[in-house]
Glycosyl transferase (Streptomyces dioscori), 424 residues
Amino acid sequence: MRVLVVHNRYNSAQPSGENNVVDQEAELLRAAGHRVEVFERRSDDIAGRSLLGKGALPLLVPWNPAVRSELADRLRTERPDVVHIHNVFPLLSPAVLAACADADVPAVATLHNYTQVCPPGTLQRDGRPCTECVGSSPLPAVRHGCYRGSRLATVPLAVSLSVNRRRWWSGVERFFCISAAQRDVLVRSGMPAERLAVKHNFVPEPDARRTGPGEHVLYLGRLAEAKGVRLLMAAWDELAAAGGVGVPLMIAGTGPLEAEVSAWAADRDDVRYVGLYDPAQCRQAIARSVAVVAPSTWLEAFGLVVVEAMAAGVPTVAAAHGAFVELVEDGVSGLLHRPGDPASLASCLRRITAEQERNQEMGRAARRRYEQGFSPAVGLERLVEGYRSAIAGRSGGGDGPPPLREGNTGSRRGHRRERDGGSR
């Protein structure tokens, strides 16, 4: 099969699970004998733009005509069987859908977050879950400045969501939702259920697996409010006040709370902040863990670190909402705590570190869960199945730039896909 992957790569200064997924899927397909090419832009390149170019960038977020032309030409030349779209923000835009229609090539899209119904894609505001824009206009996101705390920065995302929502519905043959929890939210928002398939991300077989009881509890990820970092600090302080759990907390990552985390961890024997790890260091840190903790306060669409822990035979303590409830079998392969509750998180951490034999059983169950649902073999099967379904039901994605009003898809099949709802 000939596949063209379309992706706007995230800034390399921050670790990106999405970038990793895109690269790993491409490698998996190539190893299976499929031909994979890439059409991409890099957010790193924004820094090298002229002042005028940077100023014009928000105008291209909803629609980038140059990308449409370039991609359509490439599709006509290379004639792939299917286009696989990942992230299009900020340099690609939904114009990639029109390019697929221009060249009559079917498209699939992986939904890595909730940008189809929420401008920043997090379903969170002020540290709490928020669905105010789901099924309705994205104006609340603008009013609250949900993207980077800025109303101005949120406007291009809100405009793109509004004017392109039905273009997405008609221009993509198959959406890959990375969890059933994510799919449920999107179906409730009005997206076409028949085009939404659950395809969990896979994780490559790790080069290191846990062989002993573990040396630390590990938090591995972005240091941000939505990831539950402050919640974890509060829970760990509660445990420390009661005498600790016998192993230190290791925190690996970077992000907006880095200075706060570093100051909190300084001069403590029970906490180690190690900064940003490379992939090999991450795998080693997971394999040496008593447990991996994922205390996100937002509704995670997936939870890659949870599955990476499974692959290494390590149980997880995670928040009992979003995708975590389908990834972690509570009491079997890990423990689920009440979202946003530091006392509940502390209790789960105490249990999973105190009961060593039970911890080992959970680790073995986590590994079995990985083998059954998240291995490369399973990932390849589901990926190719989705491609074949898209090829069998090919459709167009649009003939012109979207008008700045609701209800017009601008697509060849848009009139057959008119629906009520609040997603693009």
